[in-house]
Design a protein that fits this description.
Blueprint: H1 17-52, H2 61-86, H3 111-127, H4 130-159, H5 161-169
């Protein structure tokens, strides 16, 4: 199913000397920038909530912590699959050149976005932030629009028929356990 590689294998993108060091540095920058954006969002919404006197019920703290931990774990699992298979973070400017269909990508096409959603709503519950909960609620439709209009067409152009086959096997948003039969409706 992978373009240019055997099953479960990635290409040797970024290997060799100075190019490999630049590639690792670029990936570290992308991951750091994304983490920084989440931190800024959390601090800004916390400050806004405090000034307005807003808060969520304390009962959401524990479920929020669970969602936060699950989101972080899903993102980490997806990044390990991307780095191990395609030597890519999947971030802007670091799109994989081979199809990654292992790890969480076996069950869902967009595990990093799904993990980011759980991370956002988890932090909202854990911190008691209504503003962050609203940001978390706005995240899925924005990501859906981006994925459908930008990311999937670009990936289809880059990976071709292997990606088209993958679309039949992995749903877009709602994970599915393997062995439950192929689902042709990939709108979920």
């Amino acid at each position: 199913m992978q373009s240019g590689a055997g099953p479960g294998e990635g290409s040797e993108i970024g290997s060799g000397g100075a190019a490999a060091r630049r590639s690792v540095a670029a990936r570290a920058f992308i991951l750091s920038a994304a983490s920084g954006l989440v931190i800024v969002l959390v601090l800004a919404t916390s400050a806004m909530d405090s000034r307005a006197g807003w808060s969520l019920p304390p009962a959401l703290k524990a479920p929020g912590a669970v969602a936060l931990a699950g989101g972080v774990a899903l993102i980490a699992w997806a990044e390990v699959a991307l780095l191990g298979t395609a030597r890519s973070t999947g971030g802007f400017g670091d799109a994989p050149e081979v199809l990654v269909a292992r790890g969480p990508y076996r069950y869902v096409r967009n595990p990093i976005y799904l993990g980011a959603f759980f991370l956002l709503i988890g932090i909202a519950g854990w911190r008691g932030s209504p503003s962050l909960l609203l940001a978390g609620a706005a995240f899925p439709p924005l990501m859906h629009f981006f994925v459908v209009r930008v990311e999937e067409p670009a990936t289809r152009r880059r990976l071709g028929a292997a990606y088209d086959d993958y679309l039949k096997d992995a749903p877009r948003w709602v994970p599915r356990v393997r062995g439950s039969g192929r689902r042709r409706d990939d709108s979920r």
